[in-house]
Amino acid sequence: MEAPLLEHQKQQSLLNESVSETKKLWKIAGPAIFTAICQYSLGAITQTFAGHIGELELAAVAIENSVIAGFAFGVMLGMGSALETLCGQAFGAGQLRMLGVYMQRSWVILICTACILIPVYVFSPPILIGIGQQKDIANLAGTFAIWMIPQLFAYALNFPIQKFLQSQRKVMAMAAVSGIVLVIHIFLSWLFIVELKLGLIGAALTLNFAWLLIDALQLVYIFWGTCGEAWSGFSWQAFNDLWEFVKLSLASAVMLCLEFWYLMMLIIITGYLPNPLVPVDAISICMNIQGWDAMIAIGFNAAISVRVSNELGAGNARGAKFSVIVVSLTSVVIGAVIMALVLVTGHEFPPLFTSSPAVAREVTRLSGLLAFTILLNSLQPVLSGVAIGAGWQALVAYINIGCYYIVGLPAGFLLGFKFNLGVEGIWGGMIGGIVLQTMILIGVTACTNWNKEAAEAENRIKKWGGSIER
Question: Which family does it belong to (predicted)?
Answer without folding.
Answer: Belongs to the multi antimicrobial extrusion (MATE) (TC 2.A.66.1) family.
